[in-house]
Design the sequence.
């Protein structure tokens, strides 16, 4: 049986070891309980919760979702019970589960991210935090944190100071310089980087001559964004040393393999779950079978293998890309 | 409990002009647990394609626990439903279900009024059967564009009083189905409605104008675009007096007075 295990926080004593590299993505798996009846959640490497905010949010008006070619737009508006409502309900359930639960947090001010991280730090049942920086920064006039390396680093530093939990920072594809943001959050203390969040898009109802979504714009996800996501993972993997979690449009094993080859140590699957909840476990099983067939003993052997001039095999035990920054510079 | 399963199409019967009544197999034992108002989500994806990406919701029209089958009423509308309507006997469907809550017949109710618009007829036939089995009286009002678009009387249980309205007057009352409602308001203990949003608004207007002391109560099956069907994505919510509620888990059936219209 090939080794599918991966540690997404090798620099952190609290580590984030997953038995396999397949994670259910934020906003697409609720709080895990929603899917407990239709699939075996315990088979997952991990799952990420819906984005939690400091205060409860009732979300955007309807319609909030619409289908697009090979994709969908969503403008849920971060409907969630707020950090206090969240704390009362979910950690005590997750504590009894074997699968690692990662909490996704969103805020509109640096202090609010830190406040939530401080609350989560002490709780049982939480394996790590994923920081969603694709949010408007109120202090910066609503400019998205994740579009700017400095603001992304500010959030990361504040959360790092507030918790010793494994910390994944989730990058926004709207960043002007995705590699610059990645390097900045690595430097600021992120244990891992995940990408990509949704791309901002819009559909217009020609009959009504109005945007389909009540919010006008929404986040594009699904197969339509996969090439953009793979490119960004590839670029970021060429620059950082911490593990990368890749996502965007994964619909099956072949898509997941593209992300591993681009340099991701683990993948998240989001939109695909809506149509086929069974796909999560299918990808895990097919990955094991594929590695067997290809004679690959450990996932680390293929992580980043698509990069030219990269050592063909990563040192045993070390996950993620190595020294490609030098390669790129040279 | 919802599951993802393959259902084989056993029969396709043309109904209501352009629609199809489909008989589909269920995993053994599932039919007995399914109740009127619930729905299933069907993957209507073209072979080798990512489109349409999301499942389509379909109300359960009826179940037969003896044969482990259910029936669905499919009206070709856009891409997903057109794909489904073209399926043939012997093909299988990828189904997620059963999903959602159910119509609730009050223990004190004697007389039930069904109000159906178009394919909204689907869950109300099953509800009528449940009501008749309890010895209740049922009147079923149905509206459609023209006579062919109506549910054939043979599909409505014989013990039900079936009254129809058509836009063009080709059968029954000429006009909206909701025009018929005032005649039954003092008789009905409960009203159950399924159809387009415009029908709900007009039904609400009629009921609010005529009813006394909050009677009769009205339950509606609300239609929202859906993704997960399991309460995870929060893409299908309905605003209620107690906050946002998902229409896939907390609904699709709501008390009309609870919804913020
Ligand atoms: C709980 C629930 C139960 C349902 N039960 C049934 C049923 O028993 N039988 C049945 O035939 N259908 C039923 N539907 C509706 C069915 O799911 C729709 O036919 C389907 O969503 C339309 O998908 P499509 O792929 O055909 O159209 P699409 O290609 O998705 O739609 C084309 C366009 O029409 C719009 N649109 C989609 N559906 C509607 C609509 N109903 N009214 C107005 N505009 C629309 C879309 O926004 C889009 O712009 C139900 C829906 C819900 C939520
Ligand atoms: C309905 C929906 C809700 C989402 N909510 C969140 C969220 O709360 N926080 C977050 O970081 N990402 C959220 N995402 C983004 C996904 O986690 C993921 O980054 C993106 O959808 C790309 O992956 P996919 O193509 O596999 O879905 C959401 C996506 C969808 C479709
Ligand atoms: S369809 Fe996802 S919450 Fe209802």
Sequence:
């Amino acid at each position: 049986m090939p080794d599918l295990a991966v540690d997404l926080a090798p620099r952190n004593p609290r580590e984030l070891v997953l038995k396999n590299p397949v994670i259910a993505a934020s906003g697409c798996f609720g709080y895990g309980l929603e899917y407990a009846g239709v699939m075996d959640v315990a088979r997952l490497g991990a799952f990420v919760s819906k984005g939690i905010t400091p205060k409860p949010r009732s979300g955007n008006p309807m319609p909030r979702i619409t289908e697009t070619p090979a994709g969908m737009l969503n403008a849920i508006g971060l409907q969630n019970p707020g950090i206090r409502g969240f704390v009362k309900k979910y950690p005590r359930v997750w504590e009894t589960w074997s699968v690692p639960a990662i909490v996704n947090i969103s805020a509109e001010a640096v202090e609010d991210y830190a406040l939530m991280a401080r609350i989560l730090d002490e709780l049982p049942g939480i394996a790590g935090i994923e920081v969603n920086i694709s949010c408007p920064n109120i202090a910066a006039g609503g400019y998205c944190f994740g579009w700017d390396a400095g603001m992304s680093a500010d959030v990361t530093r504040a959360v790092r100071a507030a918790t010793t939990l494994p910390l994944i920072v989730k990058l926004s594809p709207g960043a002007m310089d995705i590699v610059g943001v990645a390097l900045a959050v690595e430097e600021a203390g992120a244990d891992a980087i995940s990408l990509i969040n949704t791309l901002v898009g819009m559909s217009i109802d020609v009959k009504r001559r109005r945007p389909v979504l009540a919010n006008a714009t929404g986040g594009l996800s699904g197969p339509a964004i996969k090439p953009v996501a793979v490119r960004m993972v590839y670029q970021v993997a060429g620059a950082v040393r911490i593990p990368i979690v890749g996502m965007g449009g994964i619909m099956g094993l072949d898509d997941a393999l593209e992300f591993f080859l681009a340099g991701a140590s683990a993948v998240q699957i989001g939109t695909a779950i809506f149509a086929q909840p069974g796909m999560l476990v299918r990808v895990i099983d097919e990955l094991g079978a594929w590695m067997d067939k290809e004679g690959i003993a450990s996932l680390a052997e293929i992580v980043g293998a698509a990069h030219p001039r990269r050592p063909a095999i990563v040192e045993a035990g070390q996950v993620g890309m190595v020294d490609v920054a030098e390669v790129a510079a040279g | 409990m919802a599951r993802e399963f393959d259902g084989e199409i056993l029969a396709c019967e043309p109904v209501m002009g352009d629609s199809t009544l489909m008989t589909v197999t269920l995993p053994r034992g599932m039919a007995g647990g399914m109740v009127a108002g619930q729905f299933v989500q069907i993957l209507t994806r073209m072979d080798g394609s990512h489109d349409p990406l999301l499942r389509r919701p379909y109300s359960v029209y009826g179940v037969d626990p003896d044969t482990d089958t259910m029936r669905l009423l499919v009206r070709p509308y856009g891409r997903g439903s057109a794909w489904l309507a073209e399926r043939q006997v012997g093909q299988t469907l990828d189904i997620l279900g059963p999903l959602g809550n159910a119509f609730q017949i009050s223990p004190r109710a004697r007389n039930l009024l069904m109000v159906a618009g178009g394919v909204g007829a689907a869950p109300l036939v099953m509800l009528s059967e449940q009501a008749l089995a309890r010895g209740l009286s049922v009147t079923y009002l149905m509206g459609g564009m023209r006579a062919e678009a109506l549910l054939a009387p043979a599909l409505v249980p014989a013990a039900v009083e079936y009254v129809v309205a058509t836009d063009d007057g080709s059968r029954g009352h000429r006009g909206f189905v909701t025009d018929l409602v005032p005649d039954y308001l003092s008789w009905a203990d409960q009203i159950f409605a399924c159809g387009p949003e415009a029908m709900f608004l007009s039904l609400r207007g009629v009921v609010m104008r005529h009813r006394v002391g909050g009677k009769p109560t009205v339950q509606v099956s609300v239609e929202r675009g859906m993704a997960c069907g399991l309460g995870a994505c929060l893409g299908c919510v309905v605003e209620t007096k107690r906050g946002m509620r998902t229409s896939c888990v907390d609904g699709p059936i709501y008390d009309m007075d609870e919804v913020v219209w």
About this structure: Confidence is low (pLDDT under 50) at residues 312-330 of chain A. The two ends of chain A are 39 Å apart (CA to CA). Residues 279-294 of chain A form the longest helix (16 residues).
